[in-house]
Amino acid sequence: MKKVLKKTTLTLIITLLFLLIASEAMYGQSRRNKKENTDIWKYEIEGVQTGVQGTYLIKVWSYSPNANLAVEQAKKNAVHGIIFRGFAGTGRVPGQKALATNPNLEEEKQDFFRLFFAEGGKYLKFVSLTNDGAVAAEDRLRVGKDYKIGVIMSVNVDALRKDLEEAGVIKSLGRGF
Length: 177
Fold this sequence. Notes:
The protein is α+β, with helices and mostly antiparallel strands. The chain folds into 2 domains: 1-39; 42-166, no CATH class. 44% of the residues lie in helices and 20% in strands. It has helices at residues 2-39, 67-84, 105-108, 110-116, 157-166, and strands spanning 43-50, 55-64, 127-129, 140-143, 146-156. Strands 1, 2, 3, 4 and 5 form a 5-stranded antiparallel β-sheet that branches.
């Protein structure tokens, strides 16, 4: 009886260890895939309407093989787009230039931006979902292997500009040419 009990206990311990190791391997792979997907700046931005003073209300179209990851990535993409790309105007919403006037800024300040856009990074202070992350059916498209997800965001551009100026990343509007 003791022999059977020891064998059953040993089998249970080995099974639990195997499951623990397997789940960690899968979770680690998931984290790596998430990081790889969020390191690629693949998105489009369009103005939706004029936001309150100092904010832009934009729709960010993010591409990702994982629809839920695309919604989270849209926050990073929104801030990245305001800093480095700007967006074109539509009939009712004026376009906006990028905050960065130096086309090499992202490369020159890569240490700053690596931390700024890290998971849970400072970029989150300047962006919010306007519809609690709900995605309308027409804003969820399948493009090849990826999803193209449209999410409406509010970006506090005044606070973002101020933070980047204080960090010495972009020049102040008040500084001379």
